[in-house]
Amino acid sequence: MREKIVAGNWKMNKTLDEAVALTSDLSESMKSSAKVKVVVCPPSLYLKPIQDVLGENAEIKTGAQNCSEYEVGAYTGEISAAMLQSAGVSYVIIGHSERRQYFNEQPGTLAKKVDLALQHELIPIFCCGEMLDIRERNEHEALVRSQVEKSLFHLPAEAISTIVIAYEPVWAIGTGKTATTQQAQDMHAVIRKHIAGKYGQEVADRMPILYGGSVKPDNAKELFSCPDVDGGLIGGASLKAQDFMAIINAV
Ligand code: PGA
Prior knowledge:
The protein is of the alpha/beta class. The protein is 44% helix and 15% strand. It has helices at residues 16-30, 47-54, 81-86, 97-102, 107-119, 132-136, 140-152, 157-160, 181-199, 201-206, 217-224, 241-248; strands at 5-9, 37-41, 60-64, 91-94, 123-128, 164-167, 209-212, 231-234. α2 (47-54) links the parallel β2 and β3 (60-64). The longest helix has 19 residues, at 181-199. Residues 9, 168, 173-174, 212-215, 233-237 line the site of 2-phosphoglycolic acid.
């Protein structure tokens, strides 16, 4: 059985007090539901205080939203994979479309981030997905295959086995427009087949591939019922404990 994961990407939202309150609410509600791995990705500044709220051996793991492509040194404002590891962080989102779009992150940079994350025992949640015009030109499958290839295919099989991929069509992020179950399933199958072509079916069958893009309590169950959808990367709906819990319980 593949691992099921629901990760909340809080993006640049909430004050420290609000973030702590949300974490306490989630941690309370989590006690009774544990068949899925749950990750919260707050702004990096809040990772440590949030871990304190969660306590040791918590059901909920923490993830960063980004890490530096550099190991250490004079890179003002950056946070390295080593720092995240030293702070007890378990996951890191790499290549989110907002990082690609607004911070001009290129495939080669993302490959370096993936390498550093793995060296520091962080689990990368590697994001891929097409813009609307690409889908309209029917080039989405080729684009996503190339995103995966350019940032992940330099890895040996043991390394790729620890990675989580999130397919997030850019036109569905924060827009309230979700991919249909058929669109999600088709793309997840394309990604899994591409992984299988390079690393073999066994590796591909074990890889969790999450769907992201306007997942809400009322559409989560349908999306998660697709055979190749192994959970979700949730933005807006992860900012409210009740909605995020409903999505977790839909897995
Ligand atoms: P959304 O964001 O759920 O608000 O669409 C998803 C994401 O960006 O990871």
